[in-house]
Amino acid sequence: LFSGETDFVKGVVAMDGMPPDDRIEICFAGRSNVGKSTLINALTGRKALARASNTPGRTQEINFFTCADSHYVVDLPGYGFAKAPKDTVAKWQRLLKAYLSGRATLRRAFVLIDSRHGVKAVDEEIMSLLDRSAVTFQVVMTKADKVKDAEREKNLAQTREAVSKHPAAYPEIIVTSSEKGWGVDVLRAVISTLE
Ligand code: GDP
Q1: Prediction ipTM score
Q2: How many CB atoms lie within 10 A of CB 186?
Q3: 3-state SS string over 8-29?
Q4: Probe ligand 1: pick from 27, 28, 32, 33, max atoms within 8 Å of CB?
Q5: Which of 7, 34, 54, 180 would you label with 62, given CA atoms 20 to 30 Å apart?
Q6: What is the DSSP letter of 1?
Q7: Is 118 in the pocket of ligand 1 (CB under 6 A)?
Q8: 147 C-alpha vs ligand 1 centroid, how far in Å?
């Protein structure tokens, strides 16, 4: 699936701009700076596919990429940027809700959690929204190379506990480091099994 071409399709700011839902789709969500762009780049093997870092206040787009003509990989705007203006946040929440409940082909959301921080309040909000939208989600820990083993285990346990309370959560958590390449193959394999 990830050995072929991955191409940017478009950035979408409203539901009527979405590409046709004619293939399997997965999406990535996470707090700003969680390492989402870097992970999507590592996953697809491209250098600068997903834009690095979302700047606060910049247009919040849902970015669509195609993978092997059979899948869409969707990069949701980073959330939880304290400095983002209220109306930007409200607009993003509306679009996100519409997207999550309106995409019949969306098979799984991957919620990225920083190995250094564990699950924060904004992550809880996203996971609850995924519950309400009945979108199965799976948690991916990022930047695992940045923490010592003991801290990684502690934050993983906290995350596992938080995830267990969400009916839409897939229980298995994937631990990754885009920097070291850890877990990226596991993530690819999981995505490849989705039908
Ligand atoms: P985004 O805002 O979620 O898209 O985050 P980025 O992908 O832009 O990453 C934010 C920062 O974390 C950048 O400086 C990345 O180089 C760094 N980063 C991302 N993934 C990793 C990782 O696995 N390990 C380390 N050490 N740094 C990472």
Answers
A1: 0.99
A2: 14
A3: EEEEECCHHHCCCCCCEEEEEE
A4: 33
A5: 180
A6: -
A7: no
A8: 14
The class that CATH gives domain 6-193 is: alpha beta
Residue 122 in tokens: 């904004």
6, two tokens: 């991955």
Q: How far apart are CA 158 and CA 185, in angstroms?
A: 24
Tokens of 157: 């346990």
CB–CB of 142/116 below 8 Å?
A: no
Stated pTM of the model: 0.94
Q: Which range (5-9, 22-26, 111-115) has the least confidence?
A: 5-9
For 125, which DSSP code?
H
Query: Measured between alpha carbons, how far is 117 from 100 in angstroms, rounded to an integer?
Result: 25
pLDDT score at 3: 77
Q: CA–CA distance from 46 to each of 40, 73, 76, 174, 187 (Å)?
A: 8, 13, 18, 21, 16
Distance CA 89, CA 129 (A): 15
Domain segments of the chain: what residues?
Answer: 6-193
